[in-house]
Amino acid sequence: MRAKPAPQRLFTRRTFGWLTELQANNNKAWFDEHRKRYEHDVREPALAYIETMVTELRRITPHFKAIAKKTGGSLIRVHRDMRFAKDSAPYKTNIGIQFRHEHGRDVHAPGYYLHIEPGQCFIGAGIWRPEAAVLRAIRMEIADRPQAWRRIGSARKFAEKFEFGGEQLARPPRGFSADAPCIDAIRRKDFIALAQLSDTFLRRRDLPAATGELFSRTTPLMRFLCGALDLDF
To answer: For residues 125 and 136, what is the distance between their CA atoms, to the nearest angstrom?
Structure first.
């Protein structure tokens, strides 16, 4: 019986090399000159990774989608939004990949996230900067179910790899007292869990399975957030 061939690496040293060079040459002329390398070493591996994650995500939940499209899918566009930016650099110097809930409209919806940037790679899950109504719904869920929220952070598989990130208010939000259970969590602006990764981790041959396993560790958090927002998990 013929053995299965070993999976190919999706992201390679060439991927990280291109991103490093972009950091030093973040302008349209350089990008246009090296566009073929971007396609071959950055975008194509990212789309291939997204395609493989269709199966990995289904093992966790059928309600989060991996969409391998150049635009409008799981791959976040390389062009920066310059409308309100003080920095005039036109391109993001990382690969951003997000698997959003099927009912999510944008990056502020619940999702799983992979960030690939030389020396600053990480994986995350949760919801970043939710709009006011969504933010209040999550805060109310924490206030109503403090023990369920505490169990998320204390779960061994979660705590081994992840910690909560994002920003917090300095004071309790309107309608919540300073001595409310889990007030530190209620003061959050973001409900995201992050795990730092090495560049070498991103060059693993089994990257889809490895990231899928990490995403699965955040299931209690994602189930809690979806429940707060009346979304299926």
So the answer is: 19
